[in-house]
Specification:
heterodimer; A: alpha/beta; Rossmann fold; 6-stranded mixed beta sheet; 4-stranded antiparallel beta sheet; globular; B: mainly alpha; two-stranded antiparallel sheet; 11 helices; 2 strands; binds adenosine-5'-triphosphate; binds magnesium ion
């Protein structure tokens, strides 16, 4: 399974005076098993891009090939595509509608036409994967849950379809620090367990830096740069020109470097930073201030 | 696909039509509608169509966009057309078993169809060229003489403003929810009527939840800014007749006169 996006273009409200080009000339590739992080300023076209990846939006130009199938070709089965590519929307908790959590999570699998026993097994598995207790949650109304719990139920609803590609649009937006950490850990777990392609949009640079195999930066509907987190976050000026920042820890280590600390460039995790600084200090290094 | 609904939508622009006083546009539209109902011959429609055509050309709203607004009423149009064509007695032009088309029926069918089309196009020009807020402001001003008789003009206008304001918001919300459920494999297009009605539940429940949430938030926000009805409120944009408005009034008067004269002549 791999994804090839070529020269994608999308125009909203075509033919209206309000028409706007949301994507233009977007090309990139994701290899099997990779976790792709997408970052970009508000309104840069991230959500628009994601909706193309499972056929909810049709491009005005360009192609998307997923696992050898061109999903932009006329006549491809949308149901088949959505079965293979799961998309978790921004604020997915607003899509909950069933009387009970179990029924809501089962909505997707049921649409796939699975047997009841299979559905129950998948619902159980999905709820545990997102860190909720099946027995405890299954009969509760999704509307009486906390925001973080709702979010997890909604994500479980997509995971239960066992998609070959899992796409998440700002899954941690608006969550408290603990729920934020839990949801991230859950994404890491699911990605590790299934080994599938995962696409993650986030405004949190630290999360993207730590989780992604590759990072895609978009601005005003165009690809600015793409590469490993180290490559992308070493281009500080380019990022700041499109309104993005480095992860906090990288800001710190870069500031230290400017003050004469001889440590590695573009350190992305707190652990690495701690090791580097400790080593530098042990070796007798000193700050100049 | 929900975004294709153009009926009652505003089409941004800065044409002379857009800039007219909303009160004038409302009255002109009303007159146009009345005109369509008193006209009893094709020449009257021709005059109305020319006037409407001039307004459309002046407004710079693309004709294709206005015609798209006719799509939802195509069914009604076809239905009334058929009904008129087959149901009116008179000189028979064509007959097949119990179905017959008469000269009078055909004429009436065409007549009614033209009336309906002009009616829809004419009234959609009002909403296409007037910001919802300006529209409701205009309505409030036009209704304000009736305040003396206890008509809550301001509240009516405020309700309409809010309703209009939230049409696009709710459409957007519905679009989002629909996509989210489609991403979970929901299918809204196939199946029989019962199945399709059932498939709406996953959209309607979250939509209602959202609507209540939005309403509550808005009520709170209005209260937090001390909204308490229309009493003693002043407005940012006072409505005042400009030169172009007087020109429009003159044109409107000419239009009315022509209609009256032609109905006497033909
Ligand atoms: N349904 C729509 N109709 C018209 N324009 C839209 C629509 N959805 C998005 N846009 C426009 O397209 C652009 C890209 O929007 P998009 O939602 O993809 O941004 P985003 O990167 O996801 O932003 P955010 O970080 O705020 O979620 C924006 O300028 C937006 O105004
Ligand atoms: Mg977005």
């Amino acid at each position: 399974m791999s994804i090839q996006v070529k020269n994608l273009k999308h125009i909203y409200e075509k033919g209206m005076p309000t028409e706007s080009v949301a994507l233009e000339g977007v090309s990139f590739e994701v290899e099997d098993g990779e976790l792709l992080g997408i970052i970009g300023h508000t309104g840069s076209g991230k959500s628009t891009l994601l909706q193309h990846l499972n056929g909810l939006l049709k491009p005005d130009e360009g192609t998307i090939v997923i696992g050898g199938v061109d999903i932009t070709a006329p006549g491809v089965s949308m149901v088949e595509i959505r079965k293979r590519i799961g998309l978790v929307f921004q604020y997915p908790e607003y899509q909950l509608f069933e009387e009970t959590v179990a029924k809501d999570v089962a909505f997707g699998p049921r649409n796939l036409g699975l047997a009841d026993s299979e559905i129950e097994e998948r619902v159980r598995e999905a709820l545990e994967l997102v860190g909720l207790d099946y027995e405890d949650m299954k009969d509760r109304s999704p509307f009486e849950l906390s925001g973080g719990q709702k979010r997890r139920v909604a994500i479980a609803g997509v995971i239960a379809m066992r998609p070959e590609v899992l796409i998440l649009d700002e899954p941690t937006a608006g969550l408290d620090p603990k729920a934020h950490k839990d949801v991230l850990k859950m994404i890491e777990d699911v990605h590790g367990k299934t080994g599938n392609i995962t696409v993650l949009v986030s405004h949190n640079m630290a999360d993207i830096a730590n989780l992604s195999d590759k990072v895609l930066v978009i601005d005003s509907g165009r690809v600015v740069t793409m590469g490993t987190p180290e490559e992308v976050f070493s281009k500080r000026d380019e990022l700041s020109s499109v309104g993005l920042d480095l992860p906090p820890i990288t800001c710190l280590t870069e500031a230290l470097r400017e003050r004469g600390f001889k440590i590695r460039e573009t350190i992305l995790s707190v652990e690495d930073a701690a090791d580097e600084i400790a080593e530098y200090l042990k070796a007798g290094g000193k700050a100049e201030c | 696909m929900l975004r294709d609904i153009t009926l009652g939508q505003y089409f941004p622009g800065s044409s002379p039509v857009h800039k007219l006083d909303p009160r004038l546009k409302i009255i002109a539209t009303l007159l146009f509608i009345i005109e369509l109902f008193i006209v009893d011959n094709f020449i009257g429609f021709l005059i109305a169509a020319i006037a409407l055509g001039a307004v459309i050309a002046l407004s710079k709203v693309p004709l294709s966009y206005i015609l798209r607004g006719l799509k939802p009423i195509l069914l009604i149009l076809a239905f009334t057309f058929a009904l008129n064509m087959f149901m009116v007695d008179g000189r028979i032009l064509w007959q097949w078993k119990f179905l017959k088309i008469t000269q009078e029926g055909l004429e009436l069918a065409v007549f009614m169809a033209i009336r309906l089309i002009l009616l829809i196009m004419g009234s959609s020009m009002l909403t296409l060229c007037t910001r919802p807020i300006a529209l409701t402001d205009g309505i409030e001003r036009l209704l304000s003489p009736f305040k003396r008789f206890g008509l809550p003009a301001h509240d009516i206008a405020m309700m309409m403003t809010i309703a209009l304001r939230f049409i696009p918001t709710l459409l957007e919300e519905a679009d989002k929810i629909m996509k989210a459920q489609q991403a979970r494999g929901a299918d809204f297009e196939t199946g029989n009527l019962m199945q399709r009605a059932k498939s709406l539940i996953p959209i309607l429940v979250p939509l209602f939840v959202s609507a209540f949430r939005i309403a509550q938030d808005l009520a709170m926000a209005m209260e937090a800014r001390c909204y308490r009805g229309g009493e003693n409120r002043t407005r940012m944009n006072e409505m005042k007749f400009k030169k172009s408005d007087y020109v429009a009034v003159t044109l409107l008067a000419v239009f009315g006169a022509v209609i009256i004269i032609q109905s006497k002549v033909f």
